[in-house]
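hey can u run this one w/ 3-hydroxypyruvic acid bound, need the structure tokens asap thx
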Amino acid sequence: MDIIFYHPSFDNHYWVNALSRALPQANIRIWTRGDNAPADYALVWHPPVEMLKGRTLKGVFALGAGVDAILSQLKNNPDMLGESIPLFRLEDTGMALQMQEYAVSQVLHWFRRFDDYQTLKQQAKWQPLDEYEREDFTIGILGAGVLGAKVAESLHAWGFPLRCWSRSRKSLPGVTSFAGSNELSDFLHGTRVLINLLPNTPETAGIINHSLLEQLADNSYVMNLARGVHVVESDLLQALDSGKVKGAMLDVFNQEPLPANNPLWAHPCVAITPHVAAVTRPAEAIAFISRTIGQLERGEQVSGRVDRQRGY
Ligand SMILES: NC(=O)C1=CN([C@@H]2O[C@H](COP(=O)(O)OP(=O)(O)OC[C@H]3O[C@@H](n4cnc5c(N)ncnc54)[C@H](O)[C@@H]3O)[C@@H](O)[C@H]2O)C=CC1
Ligand SMILES: O=C(O)C(=O)CO
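ok here u go:
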């Protein structure tokens, strides 16, 4: 079995060595331009079109959870990957725990008013503030898939009222489930902390806009852990300036790296991380990929296949 590997920023040699240990029966090579030799599988992130074009592969694995970049490349180059070639993505592989750490720490930061205490500290003011009540701190999670469901589970342990919004109704302990565009307004009404974990699709792009933000509870908080394209940045800035939204924690942006002149950098109510909410963990990702390849080779059911029409 032949496997080609391409990632623009990972240590490709490290990955190929680790993959070779996990799949001793496979010949795994780093793909470089001009390599047209046959391959059964391709493991990729932001691949050049020529890497995949014209190949008859048994499967392509995206080395991350989101497949928006590869699907948008496919839209512009429809012959990059034959319709019948399955595309897979990483499901969890250590990302859920990282999302849980990120979401829980930031929710507690807001709930315990550490943002306000930081402001008071800058004024050298010793001033105990009123506590927030849990029942006024409803957390709404946009997207209740692999990562959203796990984030809900970790916040449930802290006793917050929880709700989620997804395409179909979910059954998650302690979480009120809202489904479909007809129920989005009900989901937003009373939501104090909005956490975004949707995939980037034509239906979800720009979803966090003026109209959505207006429907949140007053003094709400927004955490974007999914993709920058979900947020209309000018609408978020306006909601922050008006006080409707009290704080935002943003990991992803329309343009990455976020340009130095973007007003989000300077806004006192915005916290920023550089797209690190959950990174691909090699050991877990390699275990998932090698297990899935084994299942495919044996003709078994696999999980993680992307529905190209649906867009995630
Ligand atoms: N910031 C970061 O470091 C990372 C960001 N991500 C982002 O997180 C996203 C989510 O990942 P997973 O949970 O693994 O995806 P998933 O596919 O398991 O879950 C997606 C959820 O969104 C819902 N959804 C999709 N379209 C919808 C629509 N039109 N209306 C309502 N609900 C809709 C689905 O029903 C599902 O509940 C990824 O697509 C990726 O963009 C993933 C990993 C790291
Ligand atoms: O896996 C993904 O989709 C990511 O965004 C990794 O940072």
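Residues 95-111 form the longest helix (17 residues). anyway lmk if its weird
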